Queue: 4 jobs
Job 1
Amino acid sequence: MSEPAPRFDASRLTGDDPPPYTRIGSESDNPAFVLVCDHASNAVPAHMERLGLDQSELDRHIGWDIGAAMVTRSLSARLGAPAFLSGYSRLVVDCNRPLGSPTAMPPVSDGTVVPANLAISEAEATARTDALFWPYHDAIAACLDRVIGAGAVPMLIAVHSFTPVFQGFVRPWEIGLLYEHDDRLVQPLKDALDAVQPGLTIGDNEPYAIIGPSDYSIPVHGQGRGLPHIEFEVRQDLIGTREGAEEWAVTLAAVLKRVSEELAPLAIEHRIPTGVGAED
């Protein structure tokens, strides 16, 4: 008879477990940029015994966004921007999924069964989100609300990464620009990327698109506040090493500074398409 799957218990978190998020960078009330990295870590609370998985599974893309944290940390330093990095694996709780989404605590991810995510009770799901999801998002919300309250309009930048090949399809993009209703940064970013690194294949809502309840950070923190925003998806083979992550941080910092200067002054704009109701 197999051992029962390890379950989350907030009371069993210890000082050896990471915090639910890490904040780095500027403490300014008027930063030009605020960065978030929803899948920064592949850590699992020690008492959950790697969710019943081999470490090799947590080390691959189902456990986190490979390279994204390194890019975010370097970008934060180069832009003088506050950055928020999630503390735990997306398999424990996905900080870029609305609560109740079937992929928020997936029982299966890219063909891998996650034992600790099978038959999660409502109480355990709530405990995971209370301990690991809300502290991260509450900190981001508090920062943005304080900055907006001080009269600044920062760009909200989410940093993610994607696999070079998915279900046999070789993805041609080096970087994707993701958004939902507000596309004001998209063409300026494409133009700046073309100028800084000519020849890039840039995905427009590729390899993923932000549609309705698919994501959390950009729709809630960016779009919901009317802030200019973008989600960067960088291909993992390009940023899986420190050298590659640094190169892309240099590129993205140059691009973001250029676009910020070109579009100044930025404004709060709630761009919801005509005819879209509250239920959509």
Job 2
Amino acid sequence: MLFIGYSSKDRYDIVEPMIFHLKNYGFDVWYDFHDMYLSDNRIETNFINGIGKSKYVIFIISNNLFSSQCAIEELKYAQNLYEKGGITLFPILYLLRASELTGEYNWIKKIIYNEVTKNSGTLFVTNQIIEKILHDKCNALKYRSFSEISNHIEPYLKELLETYLILDSPNYSAKIALLYSAYLYMTIEKQVRFETYIVKIIKKIITFSSLNITLDHLSFHIFEMTILIALNIYVNSLSTEQLSTRH
């Protein structure tokens, strides 16, 4: 789950668009506009159940946030968890430059951040967040590369991956087609069911590709990591199936 902290004044300009993209990618988002109700205990609801139970926390840092006591308290709570290694924190500076952060907020500049304006939109910064989440998932996989996992799958998938690996790097269209073929094989032929975020990411990027919308390297990397995660799930299901058969 992801938590988003912000000033209510920034809700419609940046927060709602980011929520739209994150949910389109299939990720659960704790968003107090939807998750808190009149008379709720704010500390328990937003701090403990929201920030405290989220591995990834996004904060929209703006001048509006600095004028909101509630948002400042949430940011301090997140800072404490971040400094203890309890969460991954994404500072998004909205209509604000890092050079404007002083005093007690200087610590934010120690984290890789992104500066967003009304003209820059929210898709790119959302993709950066998704890339980090998938990167962490890939680091925890048993097989962390296509070349490594190709030794543990049937000949058809192995051939797809080996062809993929020899293609020229900028040839995104052909690379996506090969990886998508592997995904279709797993879902249609082998009837593997994947988590919502895997299905939605693949569907979203395939839609972009089908409409001949030029993909940037970031979007392609997201697609690539998602397929790698799917392949690991598939290989794990084969191992589980074999164990069940033996017993």
Job 3
Amino acid sequence: MNVTMLKSQIDAVSSNISRVFLGKPEVIEMTLTAFFAQGHLLLDDVPGVGKTLLGQALARSINASFARIQFTSDLLPADVIGGDFYNQKTQEFQFERGPIFANIVLADEVNRTPPRTQSATLEAMSERQTSVGGKTYELPNPFFVVATQNPVEFQGVYPLPEAQLDRFIMRLSVGYPNRQAERMILDAHASGSALGSISPVIELADALAIQNCVPEVTLESSVTDYLLEIVESTRRVDDLALGASPRASLAFARAVRAYALVQGRDYVVPDDVKALAVPVLAHRILPRNVRREESQHVAVSFLERALASIPAPR
């Protein structure tokens, strides 16, 4: 594994995205971590902060296909994954692929669609394949879903159950840009969309090669114990109705390896674990006796206290 070459490619993608997605380098860094870890990303944020632009810029930077699905209350599973349609010319049924058959898929406002459509989408995310009419169809590789939901609106939505939230390797919030970044956004978009200036800086095969290198990143025994101690802390307190599962541990380990590679290292350090504990674990634990809209904040506070009390290895 040539870490210097991989770091150069990752930096090229990050710089390319930052040309249009301005003022949020940490969000780009976490998005690339989720992508190279072969997970999926959930963005909790209000409309208009650039979530679609982020997905499109990533797709263009690695020469990948992109699809945006606007989730609504009347969206059906076939509208997402596709279905069998009768071809009058051939007089046969044939499968027509839905928009989920893209390398990078933006599932916009995923909590606005009924549970049946949510389940079909999340099943495809988990299995990386879908079955229609007794036939199984592989999804493209790489396959990365960026799902969004508005954390402010609670009317007319179908909140994702905890078992489905567990399918996302990370949950992030983009947030508003600062004044300087927003001025840059105004200047960049003065003559129209800035996305047209984005062209591939690496090829899809290069992105796959980086993903395949992630398992080779060293996770030393003491750092593994530190990671597991954080996970186990979510299972030992009465304030939490649901602690992080073994699947969360696997996702956590995969994410910290990818994060180390994004930082230009072939080994994980305790600071990588600290940086990813909240985005990887907070949506996988369920506090007791709090309203749903407050649970994420309570989960984040719990993990921050755990990180402060659990000693990191030297």
Job 4
Amino acid sequence: MTKTSRLAKLYIALIFIFLYAPMVVTMVFSFNGTDSTYIMNGFSTRWYTKLFHDSVTMNALENTVILAVVSALISTVMGTMAAVGIDSLKKKRIKSAVMTVTNIPMMNPEIVTGISMMLLFVFAGRLLGQKDTLGFGTILIAHISFQLPYVILSVLPKLRQTDRRIYEAAQDLGCPPVQAFFKVVFPQILPGIISGAIMAFTLSLDDFIISYFTNGPSFQTLPIHIFSMTKKRVKPDMYALSTLMFAAIFILLILMNIVQAKSDKKQRKAKEEM
């Protein structure tokens, strides 16, 4: 083993330790027997029990999951339709301009997006004569807006890999365009759609800055609830919640990789058979 390879392995190990050591500490202290956040004393699951009996936290978690599911579904449908439309554009300049506009929400700082959306919603609410402008509707629109580019970029590569001749052949055989799309194109781009949906779901769960500026007093998400708790002492029940959320996201990522691997395997087999 050369010195360069040893240094490379050491570098990779340090990167993994830096990334995952905080999460490991959180998991360990979620089973702490006391309420200390830095001294481990015994093993207990009481913080998980206390977590599930905390109505405020559970309500915030329910709001977060509902928001993530609804926004992911809407952004997946809209993003898939947008990707199909972008892929069908003939002129390269127009397609390049549309892709540039699509990428802006990802490049734009979240605090700028959050503040600008808050001002837009308040301005629109004043025009409509509404006092309580911010709420579930505004935060839902905000989440859909920053999830769309990720869905589009997940579906577009699958569309480019699709053989257009198969879609055209289905139409020549008498299949209507919509039916031909769902029977021929949709199964081939389904892994990209699933990847985009999972990405949108995880982004919604994780978002704090945009949610902070666009939510109202009647609707509180989990990240905002946890942020409000940082003004006081954070107890290990939040460690338990973080552990459960990490496990859920980890399982989703594994499922996404499995779907992606199966899709790539099918494409390789199809190319070999041709």
